[in-house]
Amino acid sequence: MALEIPMQGIDARARELGIDLSSVDLDSINLPAGEDFGIPSDDEDLLRDEDPMELEMGFANVVVVDNLPVVPPEKFDKLENVIRKIYSQIGVIKEGGLWMPINQETKKTYGYCFIEYNTPQEAELAREKTNGYKLDKSHIFAVNMFDDFDKYMKVPDEWMPAEIKPYTPGENLQKWLADEKARDQFVIRAGTVTEVYWNDARQKMPELVFQKQYWTDSFIQWSPLGTYLATVHRQGSQVWGGDDKFERLMRFAHPQVKLIDFSPGEKYLVTYSSHEPSNPRDTHRVVLNISDVRTGKVMRDFKGNADEFTPSGNISVSGVSWPIFRWGGGKDDKYFARLGKNVISVYETETFSLLDKKSLKIENVVDFCWSPTDPIIALFVPELGGGNQPARVSLVQIPGKEELRQKNLFSVSDCKMYWQNSGEYLAVQVDRYTKTKKSTYTGFELFRIKERDIPIEVFELDNKNDKIIAFAWEPKGHRFAVIHGDGPKPDISFYSMRTANNISRVSKLTTLKGKQANALFWSPGGRFIVFAGLKGFNGQLEFYNVDELETMATGEHFMATDIMWDPTGRYLASAVTSVHEMENGFQIWSFSGKQLYKVSKDHFYQFMWRPRPPSLLTPEKEDEIAKNLRKYSKKYEQEDQDAFNQLSEQERKRRKQLQEEWEGWVAKWKQLHEEERPYRIELRDGEASDDEEEYDTKEVEVEEVVHVQEEEVPFDLDQE
């Protein structure tokens, strides 16, 4: 923030120094090169590399529309009205901003026109929306930006080979995975500072890796595999990578960017911005760019009004339901899709165009989600015609758009879909109306995706009228947990998709009564789960072993807002962010519920574990390691013992230091006591000894009158 000084203060200071400001030529003053007066700017290099600001927009707000009908003068007005009607729906055309050149010899139009909008953004949108517009069979619009003509005219006639730059090795983006202590990293944002740490549980404290002030203007985000850290700025977004240096790898220009999203395989970055419309009656204009993460090239952009990207009406604070584009399962990044009105538009990343050049038409579709591992879309269509046409959930295979399975649902109030992270199961939570339509009850439709013909099992709780508070699949497993109930202390039930005889049928494992929890957090490796009481439950935590069906520990992080497992499932973080004014900071717990350490941070905004890529080991190799764990664990047990001994040595040194400080303090006061001995002798009338035993002790009783009360004499009438 710049320091502002009023002119009166400058004049007063000049008079004190004997300087006549009227004689000073301010224009002749040159600051020393590189002088920043102690206020460094993190964006200096960014601004220095940017193109100079253009004071005029030039012709960026002008489009050229070709392939128009060639008409005589008597049809000028009719053609102009048709064109104006089409293009005024997209933006505001300037007064006199529609011009059709005329051939002076034939007195007919040339078959093209120029349209000038108020802003370049409206012109871009006009090109996007109307290029290829079919006026009739013989006239299909070809729309280009006026500035493009100048760009293409500058292309040299002779081909020149590109300059080959020498290869310079970059930062090792996976180096952090080779940490000798097998630690995980996390990033936090507090105040204006962003910091990356190692989680050093053995030392029971975090180890700082990298720190930067004003690293981002709004938020930070890891990529799904942990390779990149993205920051967001007014000019666009940037990605950084490395082990401890975090060098800038790429910039993505996108003014006023508000949201970002990586594809699962980290190949692409989606950036989003919304802009005020020129017409107050219109909705915000949305701009979405999909860029290649490694090259920074914009592969496809989408522009339009906000309501075009929110067909279901589910508008969030940012103006849209995020993410707008949902990526297909797996890390191949081959498909992405978005929901439209009565359509699901599926795009493929080879050409970034619609799959088969057309959208998947589904009447009244309101939601869809991809399988986490396969190119399969699960979609939901609510009831139509007052219940005459039932609701349905369908599974559609991409790219063939073949319907694999469908289930009709009746009397549906609401529907939610939950994929298991291995793509083996899909749970559809269905809220249904009772016969009286005055209340609802909940059931589940469970799809077994990997089994033949995808069988579906209908599942209900023991009390189907219980309110469902939370549902969560076990990662890499076959179990799921449900929080249900209407009271202040709901129940938590566990179920398996298999029976004891390994038959494919849902079986109940246990129900835990009266838990202070409203959220479920499975360990990424399965087996362990944390019941968390967030918001109204004030941060109650319970660590539960589902294999043994027993509670390992309970804890509390007062006012906790976020719970996050590390990617290995060894540690858990609980945090209180700045939504609360007090108790900001985070705590690190072991998987079994032991609190390892806590860190307090004022104005605490974000805590994020650095994700890890999937293991390169085959399932068979993982099983072999699990069977021979004792053999492998000897090495790590020794390392743990060495770390414990190191901590013990540190504790011994700390205690020795405290003892030495105490002894030094005692010696100091003994010396002072000896220096004051002559004064004590003088005060004691020449007595030299400080030994209390050389003095006689006498007890003297002293009586002291504390209070005197006069006796009250009763008043006798007879004596009157």
From TrEMBL:
Keywords: Coiled coil, Cytoplasm, Initiation factor, Protein biosynthesis, RNA-binding
Domain RRM: 61-148
Superkingdom of origin: Eukaryota
Coiled coil: 633-661
UniProt-listed Pfam families: eIF2A, RRM_1
Annotated compartments: Cytoplasm
A GO molecular-function annotation: RNA binding
GO CC, alphabetical: eukaryotic 43S preinitiation complex; eukaryotic 48S preinitiation complex; eukaryotic translation initiation factor 3 complex
GO biological process, one term: formation of cytoplasmic translation initiation complex
PROSITE patterns assigned to the protein according to its UniProt record, in alphabetical order: RRM
Assembly mode: Component of the eukaryotic translation initiation factor 3 (eIF-3) complex.
UniProt record similarity statement: Belongs to the eIF-3 subunit B family.
Functional description taken from the UniProt entry: RNA-binding component of the eukaryotic translation initiation factor 3 (eIF-3) complex, which is involved in protein synthesis of a specialized repertoire of mRNAs and, together with other initiation factors, stimulates binding of mRNA and methionyl-tRNAi to the 40S ribosome. The eIF-3 complex specifically targets and initiates translation of a subset of mRNAs involved in cell proliferation. Component of the eukaryotic translation initiation factor 3 (eIF-3) complex, which is involved in protein synthesis and, together with other initiation factors, stimulates binding of mRNA and methionyl-tRNAi to the 40S ribosome.
Designated name of the protein: Eukaryotic translation initiation factor 3 subunit B
